[in-house]
TrEMBL record, chain A:
Domain of life of the native organism: Eukaryota
Location relative to the cell: Cytoplasm; Endosome
Species: Dendrobium thyrsiflorum
Coiled-coil residue windows: none
This protein's GO CC annotations: ESCRT II complex; late endosome membrane
Family label: Belongs to the VPS36 family.
Domain named GLUE N-terminal: residues: 10-152
Any one GO molecular function term: phosphatidylinositol-3-phosphate binding
Assigned keywords, A-Z: Coiled coil, Cytoplasm, Endosome, Protein transport, Transport
UniProt-recorded name of the protein: Vacuolar protein-sorting-associated protein 36
Pfam families in the record: EAP30, Vps36_ESCRT-II
One annotated GO biological process: protein transport to vacuole involved in ubiquitin-dependent protein catabolic process via the multivesicular body sorting pathway
Subunit record text: Component of the endosomal sorting complex required for transport II (ESCRT-II).
Primary site of residence: cytoplasm
From TrEMBL, chain B:
SUPFAM superfamilies tied to this protein: Winged helix' DNA-binding domain (SSF46785)
InterPro entries tied to this protein: ESCRT-II_cplx_Vps25-sub, ESCRT-II_cplx_Vps25-sub_N, WH-like_DNA-bd_sf, WH_DNA-bd_sf
Protein name: ESCRT-II complex subunit VPS25
Similarity comment text for this entry: Belongs to the VPS25 family.
Keywords for the protein's UniProt record, in alphabetical order: Protein transport, Transport
Organism per entry: Dendrobium thyrsiflorum
Amino acid sequence: MAASAWLPPADLTDSGRPVLFPGEVERLFLSSIDLQAEENPSLPPLRSGFLTLTSHRLLWINDNSRFAHFIPLGSVIHAFPPKKSIKNMFTSPKIRIQVSSDSDGKIIGGKGATSVVITIVMRGGKSDPEAFYGKLWEVLKSRSWEVEEVMGREDVGEIRVSGSVEGTSRVRTAVVGVAGILRKEQEMWESTDKSLQDAFQDLNALMSKAKEMVALAEKMRQKLLSGSAAQANANDEEMGSKQEMQDWLLSVGIVSPVTKESAGALYHQQLSRQLADFVKLPLEKSGGMIALIDVYCLFNRARGTELISPEDLLQACALWEKYEVPAMLRKFDSGVMVIQSKAHSDEEVFARIISLAQKPDALKMGISPSDAALTLGIAPALAKEHLLNAESRGLLCRDVSPDGFRFYVNMFKEFELGNIYLVKDHGLYKAWISAASLASA
Amino acid sequence: MQKLGDFKLPQFFNYPPYFTLQPIRETREKQIQLWKELILEYCRSQKIFIVGLDEEFSLFSNQSIERSLSHESRVVFLSALVSEGRAEWMDKSHKKCLILWLKVQDWADYIINFVKENGLEDSVMTVEDIRSGIESRGTELAGIDRGVLIRALKLLEQKGKAAIFKGSSTDDEGVKFNI
């Protein structure tokens, strides 16, 4: 019996990628995986392929991506957790799932007459069975395929997630790219939300008390604020104790999960510190300056699901003024905002730019923002800011042409009014003439 | 060295930023001064009196570096000349600019000298004679713009150093100098 007799085949694209159903999103990807029905030796196993766990199916793709099969997650009745024992330590980890099938052991959608136990064998030593099991469980719980069926029925007609053996699963445009990522985020959020809800049910009473605490803390904070506004000349001692009070309130107050509603000022304070720590390494890597938009992306990517808004980021940076943080927010004339390490020196960057601009090639052709980016080891957008900055100090001047936007070392100072043919023997002008004349006819 | 006609161009004519209007004030000031000087020198050497903004003016482009002055820059530089009194807009729409590489007063002085040096105090000359006569050859007066010449003569007339009288047609306007 061929494998396609008991496992429905899955469609692959020309380049061997699985064709996903609408709304189907890939979750985990493993290699060197066997699928076997240990209890039914008559069902031929699939050896050493790629296993992809999606929101809808378990896909098994053979190792040169020529053919594939799948198990619809809707047919998975149960998944057994991986067993840890001395015996298992030396063999490849295995995860067993019980899947609904018909009496011949064929996997079809929906409720079958009976079931088979399929073992997923993770060869290759790289796979983490716990992680896989965890993800599998998550995905099974969220039951994404059901949602899709209900939603899609109107417009696409019957969506066959289970796909019968004859391969009537239709080839639809896969939902990948940004839409896929967004869906993934959404689903992650929803499942996190659900598990939080479950966990916190017992703590509801405590939560309401915490709310009262927070309200009290806020009231006191407001009082302090209005108090200090009313007194124009507060003496040092009073201010000191007020500050203490505020800090104490902030540190005591907030027991609930850090959300803006409950935490108020503390949220931004914590965020601000976290951000300062986070930003140290990227700053070092990019020569002491990163565009704010890049920090926004990096930081959110690192956080995963608890994304912060641009306003949060700005506020967090603004708070740095209060703490001893080796980073600062800087706004250029063009409006571009960057995070800059306090150790960064404009003068030092200028020195490097000038020396670049005086090289023979640069004298002849000028430098573009990408040339500067390469030399300075920073992003082109930031390099342009530096060049513009140097221009505003009179160190460079610009050349705008159909070829683009370039900068030259500022030689206007060398040209003499009233004596326009004069070229001094030594100096920049002379150097420029030699460099420039080497090329032109 | 590059030339435009028989005019020798300065080296900085090949400096690409020279052809881009500089945004930074100090740099721009210098750039404007340099262009003013270059325009005046060039026009003087080539006896150019009128620069049309919508027309080709070879000084405003440099083929070898493939750069030309934008319309905006031309307006800026010419306006700077106008502010200094070294040029005048000939029309309200600022399309044509009269370049006074010698100011009208300077021309008047030049004419006085010219008249003295050639012993023309008592003779009557036509305006055209002054422009293209034998005595004028090799002087700045050769090929001078008629309009400018007449203005200079009128200035002299006001000071009582010359008398202009019309002939039977415009070409015959004559001048007698009383120096």
